[in-house]
Amino acid sequence: MCKKLRDLLAVIGLILCGLLPQAYAGNLAKGDIERMVDYFYGVGEILPDLPVYPLFVKDAAQPEAKPELRAYVFETIDFAPARGYSGKPINLLIIMDLSGNFLKVRLLDHKEPLFLDSAGTLKLERFAAQYKGLSTRHTVEIGPYNDPGLRDEQVAHVKGVQQGTISVKAINRAIVHAAAAVATARLKTGAEDSPVAMSREAKDVKELREPRDLKDPKDPRPVLAADDSKAAATARAAAETAESRVPAAEKKNEVTTPAPSLAQAGPASAGRTGPVTPVGESVAATASATESALAQPVEESAASPSAVLPSNPSAAPTASSTDMQDWIDAWQSRSPHILILLSGLTVLSIGLIAQRRLSASPKRLRSLRTVYLLFTLGFIGWTAQGQLTIVNLTAALESLSSGGDLGFLMNDPMTIILWLFVGVTLLVWGRGTFCGWLCPFGALQELISLLANAIGKKQRRLRAALDARLKGLKYLILAVLIVSLYASPPLAELLVEIEPFKTAISLYFMRDWPYVAWAVFCLLLSVFVYRGYCRYICPLGAALASVGFLRVWSWIPRRQECGTPCQTCRHRCEYQAISPAGPINYRECFQCLDCVSIYQDEQRCFPLIRLRTAERAVIKP
Ligand code: SF4
Ligand code: SF4
Hints:
The protein is α+β, with helices and mostly antiparallel strands. The protein has 26 helices and 7 strands. The chain folds into 2 domains: about 35-320, no CATH class; about 335-555, no CATH class. The chain has a 5-stranded antiparallel beta sheet. A hairpin with an 8-residue loop joins strand 1 (about 40-45) and strand 2 (about 50-55).
């Protein structure tokens, strides 16, 4: 079998392995829900047509009466598996009353790479908790992390999360679309309070309502109508008592909502009925009546609004319009970064097309390369957060394998542009364009090597056999990573941490010490072995090298004498990417252009030196 075909089959095999179908669905059972909702709710049976549990409350004034339907509880993943940066759906629990008010919004699960530790997860939990007190009628606008978070009955500003724009937008989408789907299927909605309202374009709303009109969330006074105040006070007291009974571990994850409203005050706040059953008493007396009622299917009644809209969640507003608006917002807000990046890529393309001119002077090549690596590290990496990572690839595989698409990537313009550029240059020049010029972590390693050289520390060249063996290690790491995506997702989450990019570039080394220690180790390695991490460990480098067979152009000029007898380029190639026989190993070539520079240098290229000497000899006699 020819080598290219074998490579192709190996890559397809690995990708297919990652694409084995995975289904995502909510997995909370009734018992789990019972533990997570306030004690005064009785949880009914899951609805026959929707993955939604009804919540009932017993009226204290009428102990014999049937418990009344007050709210629905559901997991967003069942309706809107919105994907953030990881490509995996984020899952939240929503308790929504019959008027579409959110009584509770709680983050259940996420795999967002920047927020996997407890502090990061807490940030996302705090973000999600801000939706408590909002409703399907609200237009939500995500502000910066220090946004004052103003809100009124129609418009709500929520605080964003630093470096988490994509993740919080995914959370917002999950909440909006899941709530809209349930509201559309189960609640009576009028044109003016359509669940679609939450998807309205924030800019229109801004024009209509200035933030100064909105209620200050720091104002502790709830917005209560006169008739509702007593019921709400009773409900709030009950809720507070319930809160005190919540286990400490659960409380730790709860975040108080800044803007108390009637909807937040408790299940009586809808103003339909009297106070809820007081804590302890009456509950036992009416337990059997409650249990039998909960076992019944939810009835359509005055208290249980009829489903005037289709019960099929697919009839709910689709994500596309909001996604498109998110994309447009993301691209507009990052237009300065996009412009700088496109300029940088244009300069690089011109330089690589004119590679011989660029490398004609070794000194100029070194200076320009160093400047470009500083741009890559400083701008692409630390400023614009454009570090491509294996997580982009695993996220894409995850999304495709779970029936999603790649639309979530559109929220990150830097990533999309860089991947498109890398895709094209992979076909033309191979992985070297990215690894040699555009990877911020790669640039950081090379700059550290240069610094080491400047203080007299030269990197060691490994013996060819050892170098070749170690270069195989990164492919093994990549294969284990892809297989673990399917076989053991938790292991895959752990394995992607082999990339120190998140620590060194995305989080500026502000992470738990084991991650920082690993990143520092990888960087220090480049003091002793040139780009040691890149050449031997990096799974992203391995992934790019694996598709090296797609490269159509062997762009490095060679002479007959390359390899036999001349070994100059091979000895000068810091990446050990030239075989003793002369051919270039493009999988390991980082497009540093050193050998292109040597090729045209009459002082360093052996055939040129010989030619020059021979010419002199001819002229001299
Ligand atoms: S091998 Fe990895 S770390 Fe090195 S330049 Fe390529 S992607 Fe970046
Ligand atoms: S010197 Fe090595 S890494 Fe640089 S361009 Fe030539 S073969 Fe590639």
